[in-house]
Amino acid sequence: MIDREVIKQITEIVGRENAVEDRETRICYAYDATNIHHLPDLVVFPRTPQQISGILKLANEHRFPVVPRGAGTGFTGGTIPVEGGVVLVLTKMNKILKIDQDNLLAIVEPGVVTYDLQQEVEKIGLFYPPDPASLKSSTLGGNVAECAGGPRAVKYGVTKDYVLGLEAVLPTGEIISTGVQTVKSVVGYDLTKLMVGSEGTLGVITKIILRLIPLPKAKRTMLVIFPSIESAATSVSQIISSRIIPTTLEFMDNATIRCVEDYLHMGLPVEAGALLIIEVDGAPEALTGEVEEIHKICQANLAMEIKVAKDNQEAEDLWKARRAVSSAVVKLNPTKINEDVTVPRSKVADILRRAEAISKKYGLIIVNFGHAGDGNIHVNVLIDKRKPGEVEKAHAAVKEIFQSALDLGGTLSGEHGIGITKAPYLPLELGDMGVQVMKRIKKAFDPNNILNPGKIFPDAVKTTTH
């Protein structure tokens, strides 16, 4: 517990209205999308880097943990206060400070909602591509901390590809600026890239410089139904090898299709092995040829049905299936363990076959969907925690899925990060020395282990229970 005198000092730094102790508020900030709960001692809503600096200096003096938090949409427990302390909620730092049309960049505070920035820049013909599924609620600070991805990553990359620079408060309270507002810079270590994806363990992000690009003039959207996983996966590989890079190439397996059809009743064929939602963008005159080429590839791979949206409304209708997945699958079982693994594009069918075999081995429902264009598959294990042994079987299945991804030349996470739920598996990918090097970096930035403790490293994690 934080000493009463220290709480008084924090309140003096941020103002009484921005330091909240009541239990109801603390419960609201005790969990994220994993639904793992740990109650903080205090919830603070800072408005300036100087306030954050003051709190972190107090934290080092009195040795209490501080956990930065955005909207709490993460899937690995990265913002859960596993050791109590202060949750630092950055949603009141939510200004778009600058949109620079001449230099194609935006400067924002961490609490800006991703979708809100996208809407603002698109009004003037610019484009910020990263699009995590939570984009209408997740904040840019959280996106940077997790290096968020999304469906458009296959063509445009992920958050780190758009972060030019940062302002951040170090765990010891100093305020630093990293990166530049220029296209090029090779001055010293790239501290910006080190901060991006560090999951709130190396600094509290207070300002972000983002690269923008011109808004594509047109887009075309297709939904393609396939008889098997193999035919869909082969189509993905052939589309990419034909030198067409779609904006999105989204995948759903049979179990997911059945869930969505039961949920929406939109006429999806429940006997289908898989479906792809494919979107291309660019110059209007180029898109007709790309759509025709994709159509030919899918037909050659025995596509059962190909729908091409005629306008934006039809495109939105085609996307309904993908957007309904999270709501649909939980109807099968009350607890969803949502993991993401990434494999080389050519191995998508292999990881899906292995997931199916693991599902049968443990007698568990596993549904798969995600970003086939970049090999990032969301593997969802659906369980009922009330059934004896179900949680243990789920964790065993997840470990086998992770190992399968690594065996195929993949990675434990394409966009969710490590947090606490994936921390036990970190050495599987990095090895003991890789983990040790990361620990040394953490120690250099945060000698007293103040900032977001209990995350990423296996021996630091207090719980992995979903």
General description of the model:
- The chain has 466 residues and is of the alpha+beta class.
- The chain folds into four domains: 4-91, 2-Layer Sandwich (Uridine Diphospho-n-acetylenolpyruvylglucosamine Reductase, domain 2); 96-214, Uridine Diphospho-n-acetylenolpyruvylglucosamine Reductase, domain 3 (2-Layer Sandwich); 218-326, 2-Layer Sandwich (Alpha-Beta Plaits); 332-407, Alpha-Beta Plaits (2-Layer Sandwich).
- It is 36% helix and 21% strand.
- A seven-stranded antiparallel beta sheet has the order 15-12-14-13-17-18-16, sandwiched between helices. A five-stranded antiparallel beta sheet has the order 5-6-10-8-9. A four-stranded mixed beta sheet has the order 1-2-4-3.
- Strand 17 (365-371) and strand 18 form a beta hairpin.
- It is globular.
- The two termini are 25 Å apart.
- The model has no long low-confidence stretch (mean pLDDT 95).
